[in-house]
From TrEMBL, chain A:
Residue ranges occupied by any FAD dependent oxidoreductase domain in the UniProt entry: 17-336
Protein name, as recorded: D-aspartate oxidase
Source organism: Erpetoichthys calabaricus
Protein family according to the UniProt entry: Belongs to the DAMOX/DASOX family.
Binding, FAD: T55, S56
Length: 350, 377
């Protein structure tokens, strides 16, 4: 097994060509991670959609983990913590405004006391504690609540900032819809699949399904806190220039157009939580399909095409928690890429 | 704001301000009261509203006129960031803590009301930071969710050793003052753009009660060696990604002399100037530089924010709020004066409790004059 420093031996003196499929938060962060930490790689991002047309652009971008029923809890916590810590250092730097990353405090409230009062991520976010009775008085229908400070990562800015970081690290971006991995095997040595819901076709993964989310963006600059109903169906997430109101969680629903009944439902539920919203103006309505799977797929597979065996690192199925764990999964995918550089194609001659 | 300026110029065109009194001349002095409020900042307007609402049915007619040289948006209250937060310790002045609490509870009760946004009221959480451990503040049980910062949180502020987090309220003068003026206008209160130069001026016009809410310039009406200007200069910055207030403290240099950042509904206020004795209302470039550099040190992301404006205001600093009444004699005329000034850097924070107390003092004056409806002749 050759050591990493001798990569030039495997690739005949040239850089290892890595193709990252997908330009949402997963694709771009993974590409940046690879380009910045593995100098012997030449990274190209290939995608049909770039910001502002990705699923990530619709997401509010609040760091609050989404549960993966079949992924071990310690992994979920590790990915979340890596992402939180990474974004926290951006929050407190001069890059924060350009990156669209900032601290946000608020409350998660429950009509019924949850079974887990202290979830695994409570020690990752800042200042987590139970709401006092005085704090709960503003939410008369709710019995229990958690108060904490987390981070909001606005993808409309963050993805542009990641694209800039990628180019600074020598990476490239191409608009191209990849319908099969065989399109890439002759030009690339390693493929990283961050195609989200697209993996249903691209990786032939029928266990992946959409959970449709609709949101409203309203103008309400006096709102400085997030409020989320613990059942996940109603949430208010103030952003830089607008407030995201949500939402819906419609499994197996592929409908991308705005549903007016959903819009009214969202607005009413949010106004109940925060009455001042009645005075807000709706700026836009958007739909995103969360790429959902029982467990996140983060692993290496070998794709055989002709006489070539190309490693594919899959990094998809983040559901409603993509932004919350993106950096953690990017780090893990990068590690798999590092290990794959050492892997020798059994057909190559030395 | 524009509507109010045109209203004032209209009343000015009507004629000399004392002419409107002629129609009241025929009423018996026991059947009505004329109240003059001097000052149209948050103190003057809220006191007027409180007194009107409590006594307009007990004294008919209760005529209230507000006189001021400056109206919103040109008052001290308009420039203030609007964060509800008293100074850290009341030093035994529990009455002020009570007034602060009454104000907080009152504003909190309005937070879910339909008018909250028009009034400029909303919640905001944030940080108070210290270089050495400090006793907990007098207001810790008034605000919501008061707690000490965790070591993880303190890492975000490497120049500070410890601090607190809590949820407080914002009450923005630029919205609140026009709202107060609308309420007063609905109640028939009249406004006059005029600088009152003596209490006698009003006594001569048969004003029964004067509410002296003249803030930092109260000394011009009656010398008060305890009242001094606490000059402040702030920057208004466009940084909408900032969602928390951050107030730093240095017990050696005094309150608001070290950087603070308070996001509002339209801009972020960056400050850290408190110069006692300085009457200059001009913006100073050295102060601007200090505020900007120290603010960027505290919050690095500010470096890329656009500065929209500078503003200088004079906090009406006094060892304690003056809220009492005095009977003044001018020849054969007697006039009651309720003083309500000297609220320093916490006028918005304490205004409602003081307005309630001013109304209490007004009630005592009424009792003295025995002016209730069942004792009318």
């Amino acid at each position: 097994m050759r050591c990493p420093a001798a990569a030039e031996g495997i690739y005949g003196g040239r850089l290892c060509r890595v193709a990252v499929v997908g330009a949402g938060v997963i694709g771009l962060s993974t590409a940046v991670c690879i380009a910045e930490s593995i100098p012997s790689c030449a990274v190209t991002v290939l995608a049909e959609h770039f910001t502002p047309d990705t699923t990530s652009d619709v997401a509010a971008g609040i760091l609050l983990p989404h549960p993966f029923p079949e992924t071990p809890l310690h992994k979920q916590r590790c990915w979340f913590k890596d992402t939180f810590d990474h974004l926290l250092s951006i929050c407190n730097s001069t890059d924060a405004a350009e990156a669209g990353v900032f601290l946000l405090s608020g409350w998660q409230v429950f009509q019924e006391t949850p079974s887990t009062k202290d979830p695994y991520w409570s020690t990752v976010v800042l200042g987590f504690h139970m709401m006092t009775d005085a704090e709960l008085q503003r939410f008369p229908k709710y019995k229990f609540g958690q108060s904490f400070t987390t981070i909001k990562c606005e993808c409309s800015k963050y993805l542009l900032w990641l694209e800039k970081r990628l180019k600074n690290a020598g990476g490239q971006l191409h608009t191209e819809k990849i319908t099969g991995f065989e399109q890439l095997t002759s030009s690339y040595d390693i493929i990283v699949n961050c195609s989200g819901l697209g993996s249903r076709d691209l990786a032939d993964d029928q266990s992946l399904y959409p959970v449709r989310g609709q949101i409203l963006r309203v103008h309400a600059p006096w709102l400085k806190h997030f409020i989320r109903d613990g059942n996940g169906h109603t949430y208010i997430f103030p952003g830089i220039h607008s407030v995201t109101l949500g939402g819906t969680r419609q499994k197996h629903n592929w409908e991308m157009s705005v549903d007016e009944a959903d819009s009214s439902g969202i607005f009413e539920r949010c106004c109940e939580l925060e009455p001042s919203l009645k005075k807000s103006q709706v700026c836009s309505k958007l739909v995103g399909l969360r790429p959902t799977r029982n467990s996140l797929r983060l692993e290496r597979e070998f794709f055989v095409h002709g006489n070539r065996q190309v490693p594919i690192i899959h990094n998809y199925g983040h559901g409603g928690g993509g932004i919350s764990i993106h950096w953690g999964t990017a780090l893990e995918a990068t590690q798999l890429v590092k290990e794959s550089i050492n892997w020798r194609n059994p057909t190559s001659k030395l | 704001m524009g509507a109010w300026l045109s209203l004032l110029s209209f009343s000015y065109k009507v004629g000399p301000w004392w002419d409107c009194e002629m129609s009241f001349g025929s009423l018996s002095p026991l059947r009505y009261m004329r109240v003059a409020v001097i000052g149209a900042g948050v103190i003057g307007l809220s006191s007027a509203l409180c007194i009107h609402d409590r006594y307009h049915s007990k004294v008919t007619p209760l005529s209230i006129d507000v006189y001021a040289d400056r109206f919103t948006p040109l008052t001290t209250s308009d420039g203030a960031a609007g964060l509800w937060q008293p100074y850290l310790y009341d030093n035994g002045n529990t009455q002020e803590t009570k007034w602060n609490k009454e104000t907080f509870d009152y504003l909190l009760s309005l937070i879910n009301s339909p008018d909250s946004i028009k009034m400029g009221i909303f919640t905001q959480s944030g940080y108070n930071l210290f270089t050495e451990p400090m006793p907990e503040p007098s207001w810790k049980d008034i605000v919501l969710g008061f707690r000490h910062l965790t070591p993880q949180e303190m890492k975000m502020f490497p120049d500070y050793r410890c601090g607190w987090f809590n949820t407080a309220l914002m009450i923005e003068g630029k919205s609140y003052l026009p709202w107060l003026m609308d309420r007063l206008n609905e109640r028939g209160v009249k406004f006059h753009q005029k600088k009152i130069v003596s209490f006698r001026e009003l006594a001569d016009r048969r004003v029964d009660v004067i509410l002296n809410c003249t803030g930092v310039r109260a000394g011009e009406l009656q010398p008060d060696p305890l009242l001094k200007p606490g000059r402040g200069q702030i920057l208004k910055v466009d940084a909408p990604w900032l969602k928390h207030f951050i107030i730093t403290h240095n017990p050696k240099t005094g309150v608001y002399s070290t950087p603070y950042i308070i996001p509002g509904s339209r801009s972020v206020t960056v400050g850290g100037i408190f110069q006692v004795g300085n009457w200059s209302e001009d913006n100073n470039s050295e102060d601007h530089r200090k505020v900007w550099e120290e603010g960027c040190c505290l919050v690095p992301s500010l470096k890329n924010a656009r500065i929209m404006d500078d503003w200088t205001g004079l906090r009406p600093v006094r060892s304690s709020v003056r809220l009492d009444n005095e009977t003044l004699q001018f020849g054969d005329k007697q006039c009651e004066v309720i003083h309500n000034y000297g609220h320093g850097g916490y006028g918005l924070t304490i205004h409602w409790g003081c307005a309630l107390e001013a109304a209490n003092l007004f009630g005592k004056i009424l009792e003295k004059k025995r002016l209730t409806t069942h004792s009318r002749l």
